[in-house]
Amino acid sequence: MLGLGLTKYIPLFAYIVCIVCFFLTIFYKTEIGLYLVTLLIPLQNLMDRLQVFPFGKDIMDIYMLVFLFIIALNRKDYSLRDKFVDKAIILLIFTTYSALWVGSFKLGLPYPISLNNEQFVMWKNFVMLPLLYFISINIINKRHQIFLLVWIMVTALVLMDINFYQNTKWFSYEHFVETNRAAGSTFSYLGPNEIAAFYAQITMFLIGVYLCDKARFRRLFFFGVISFNFYCLLYLFSRGGYLSALVGLMFLGATKKRLILVLLLLLFLSWKVVLPNAVVERIEMTITEEGLDHSSYSRIEMWSKAMESVAINPLTGIGFGNTRYLGIKSEKGVRRSVHNGYLKVLVEQGIIGLSIFLIVFYAALRKGWELYQNAEDPQMKGLGLGFVAMIIANLVGNLTGDKWSYFNAMGYFWILFGLVVKANEIVTVEKGSDISVAET
């Protein structure tokens, strides 16, 4: 740590902070726990190092239970905020759990009623994501709390960027090397495509905030973080990540800043000159003289085999988390995923499950755009615009891989979803107050 030899003490310090914040969350202010969880979500490498301490591997679960318990105790103060959004998310939770039973009946798997059941544990890890929406919207009540959470996310990004740079700064990028792709990831068990998808999403969010903000210092700081994020995204060599960022930038250029479209056009005309050679090689690998490269072609083969399962189980699928039982093979052996978020949901939960997923994302897009259109405060507008850009990058990213299931990759989406709905409430109340004052 900064050359002071303190790195070995960081896990102990973080563990002590988790304990202190636990008691502060219970006896002082609930939002303190949410601030800590938000900081830790993308820092899985740090969370892994806490597992040597008592209950270290269960820290996230413990905090989630505490949040839900406090919300239940204060049920008179908390309620469903937006009926359409909240009912869609509740339906998502119910449908995914129902899909566990579908898998039990269709594949003869154990009933999903205990933590000893692997499928149930997978569902529990997934359902923590939509629960983050209800937690953030019920715990965060004030404007300054919303933007404090945003700044905590930015702090986590800075730590991620520094970690990536420290682990990759000695690499040569004259030519593309597959083994260099994820050396700087803080996501631990996830690969470069997942962390690249995260970077594409969160960077689009920050650009939206940057474009709307008026404060010079904040804009300068955001510009620095955005630039560092693009550095990491480039050298993760994820073509899906590049595509997500490109479409997100096109949206921001079309809706907010036309200069972005001009810059993208210039990039299109000169990308072989301005981009690092290793990145150029990675992009050019997609299409060879023989057609699609082996990686892309194998994905199309996997999608084709997955569609055979969809044809047999079109409405309900084969059950939550059961793609791995399809026996889809590639050059790397039997695959546990079909490398397409939409197709995975369709295979596992059928048309019903995919429809509910898309309804939730439609609701998120609508609330983000509503905030951008209705808010007068530049920071609130930026929150809405950035959130919409983030969703667009997310939807594009899931075309080339399942990013919806991972807590590290999607945690910020669900927290921001809650913050955007809360921000809409605040804007509506403020406008109502302004009208009342004017009438008086």
Brief digest:
The chain has 440 residues and is mostly helical.
Outline the structure in words.
This protein is mainly α. It folds into two domains: 1-78, no CATH class; 80-439, no CATH class. It has 16 helices and four strands. It has helices at 10-27, 31-40, 44-49, 59-73, 83-107, 118-139, 143-168, 192-212, 216-234, 239-255, 258-274, 277-284, 294-312, 341-374, 378-397, 407-439; strands at residues 287-288, 291-292, 329-330, 333-334. The strands form two sheets. The protein has a two-stranded antiparallel sheet. The protein has a two-stranded antiparallel ribbon with strand order 3-4. It is globular.
**Number of distinct beta strands:** 4
| Strand arrangement, major sheet | 1-2
Share in helix? over 70%
Which shape, going by the Cα principal axes?
globular
* Total separate domains: 2
Report the β-strand fraction as a percent range.
under 5%
Cα distance, first to last residue? 59 Å
Computed structural class: mainly alpha
Order of helices and strands: HHHHHHHHHHHHEEHEEHHH
Give the radius of gyration.
Answer: 22 Å
Q: Low-confidence stretches at least 5 residues in length (pLDDT < 50)?
A: none
Question: What is the average of the pLDDT values?
Answer: 89
Question: What would the keywords be for this entry?
Answer:
440 residues, mainly alpha, two-stranded antiparallel sheet, two-stranded antiparallel ribbon, 16 helices, 70% helix
Q: What's the SSE blueprint?
A:
Layout: H1 10-27, H2 31-40, H3 44-49, H4 59-73, H5 83-107, H6 118-139, H7 143-168, H8 192-212, H9 216-234, H10 239-255, H11 258-274, H12 277-284, E1 287-288, E2 291-292, H13 294-312, E3 329-330, E4 333-334, H14 341-374, H15 378-397, H16 407-439
Antiparallel strand pairs: 1-2, 3-4
Helix pairs in contact: 1-2, 1-4, 2-7, 4-6, 5-6, 5-14, 6-16, 7-9, 7-16, 8-9, 8-10, 8-15, 8-16, 10-11, 10-15, 13-14, 14-15, 14-16, 15-16
